[in-house]
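Re: that chain you flagged

S.,

Sorry for the slow reply, it's been a week of failed gels. I finally had a moment to sit down with the sequence you sent. For the record, here it is as I used it:
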Amino acid sequence: MITGAAGGLGRAIAEEFRARGDHLVLTDRSRELSALHASSVAELINADLCDDEDLQRLCARLESGEPAIDLLINNAGIGVPGSVSALDAALLTKHIDINLTAPMRLCQAAARGMLNRGGGQIFNIVSLAGLFPLKDSAAYTASKFGLRGFTAALALELAPHGISVGGLYPSAIDTPMLREEMSHPDGSPLNFAGSADPLSSEATAKWAMDALASGNLETWLPKSEGRMASIVMTFPTSLQRVFRYMEKQGNKKKQIYLASLHT
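Prediction finished late last night. Pasting the structure tokens below so you have them in one place:
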């Protein structure tokens, strides 16, 4: 099962599995889901992760064995920039609902089914924002920090039962979500800090496949950015100084990226 499978990274990952001939259970709230995957061998489930009935429906499918789901990929997410003081309270909560609560519920359901069958794999698409905070994206950062902690704890819990748990921590991916975020005045320039350009969905999907095969708990993309984020957060007193440098560096590349969207 892949959530958020109608476009971007979710669709690219689905294409990787379709090329292997795997049976897919694809879910998204977008009506484009059916049109995009109509030719694939897949179950298509339109569901909104903010709707409790829809979420329960997905959980029931994960626990069922008709056919059994051996791999869950939590990919769906939301990221709307804005200062905490200005962000609508409902939108603040929505980040937690979609990016953290829904994956936790789906992981729980998947774990129950996999424990009954004696094996399986759970894989969460997190973000480098799960390692390093983003100014003007506190709700997004909180949800990803939480998902990282949940993923690590779940891995410890399920490893003795033959169930692998891991996560992918990519930097910016060139998707509609990134373009929408960058069109906002508060879109974080840290998406463009460092030496790397935004990743393509297709390249990130191939990294995800490698990470799944490795069974590692965490895969950082790029690895150098993840290492740097981890070092900085080991010395939180340096955060303000490092952030100012990275923000200045990222702003230059952000402007280049925005200009490229209009050419």
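What I noticed first: The beta strands are 2-3, 24-28, 42-46, 71-74, 120-125, 163-170, 218-221.

Talk soon,
D.
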